[in-house]
Write a structure and sequence with these properties.
single chain; alpha+beta; five-stranded antiparallel beta sheet; three-stranded antiparallel beta sheet; 9 helices
Length: 325
């Protein structure tokens, strides 16, 4: 019996190790953002105009044979979402979670396909495969931690079952729990048949709710209602170990300082805001008030999620330790 437990634990550790090694090897260097890079080597592949929300251009670095997406929001009141994508991407990279890497293109930086030349944009690494919505291979897999109205549904038994399909999915769910992210629907999870890997995209809806606290409540309730299966326990081990790494490498003070750095780099001075039926420019004071509220709420949620994540890890340690096949 003891040998079975040891072998299962070794298997989980090995899967996580492989994922981390792969992510380190594939960590992007974003050569196209180097000031010395010749932008004549950039080829525009496709432009997507998503209504009034966002503009996306798919490009190729022909010199290094890499693909990226350039993303800009039409309305400047959504610029904060761009900064969140960069922030969450950095957190994911710190522990090798398979999501697309995102970098800020500064307002003063000329770059192909920037729709608004004097405004920030984001550059995203290209994700292989197809979204689960379009793939057809996993028609029922869904790891989105829903929020409906004022009710936080968070992690469910169904999500844990889907996490057991791949270490990638367990890692992405852990990232969402740690960062309070609620945007990984089937359209934002990609599956690559060649590598058999899952990836996450679209990281903007982060630090909105305390999903770590919700996970504590839900998992505690699940454990009393019905015994976890060995597959679910294996998935929860990867989920727990990823949370431990996120906690160790991303203290809340560091996350908030990184956000402050991004705000400074973005050089936000005034905001073209939609009011009534037209856009107006807010005054410096009104703009500062509007952004400071969003920033303050985000930072509060950073600390709340972090504290709850530590409690969640303790709960998972107890459940996994007491598990009997």
């Amino acid at each position: 019996m003891m040998i079975c437990y040891i072998l299962r634990y070794v298997k989980v550790v090995f899967i996580i190790w492989l994922c981390l090694i792969e992510s380190i090897q594939c960590k992007p260097s974003f050569e196209v953002l180097d000031p010395s890079y010749d932008q004549k080597n950039i080829r525009v592949i496709k432009i997507k105009d998503k209504g009034k929300l966002v503009y996306i251009a798919k490009i190729e670095d022909q010199l290094h044979q890499k693909k990226y997406c350039v993303k800009q929001y039409y309305s400047e009141d959504r610029i904060f979402l761009s900064l969140k994508e960069v922030l969450i991407s950095r957190i994911a990279e710190s522990v090798g979670i398979p999501v697309n890497c995102v970098r800020l293109i500064l307002a003063e930086t000329p770059f192909p396909c920037k729709l608004y030349k004097k405004r920030i944009a984001t550059l995203h690494t290209f994700i292989p495969g197809k979204s689960l919505r379009n793939s057809g291979k996993y028609p029922k897999v869904d790891i989105k931690q829903f929020i409906r109205g004022s009710k936080i549904l968070g992690i469910t038994r169904s999500i844990i079952d889907h996490m057991s399909l791949s270490a990638n999915l367990a890692q992405i769910v852990a990232l969402d729990t740690f960062t309070g992210s609620t945007n990984h629907s089937r359209g934002n999870i990609y599956f690559d048949e060649e590598s058999n890997d899952f990836y996450g995209i679209d990281l903007k809806k982060a630090f909105l709710e305390n999903l770590s606290r919700s996970a504590c409540e839900n998992i505690k309730k699940m454990a009393t209602e019905k015994k976890f299966t060995s597959r679910e326990i294996d998935a929860l081990k990867i989920y727990r170990d990823t949370l431990k790494e996120l906690i160790a490498k991303n203290p809340p003070g560091d996350i908030c300082r990184h956000l402050d750095t991004l705000l400074k780099e973005a050089q936000l001075k005034k905001l073209r805001y939609f009011f009534g039926d037209k856009y107006v420019y807010l005054s410096q004071n009104k703009f500062a008030r509007l952004t400071s509220n969003s920033i303050k709420e985000c930072k509060v949620m950073v600390f709340q999620n972090y504290d709850s994540a530590k409690k969640l890890v303790k709960l998972l340690d107890e459940i996994i330790k007491n598990y009997k096949k």
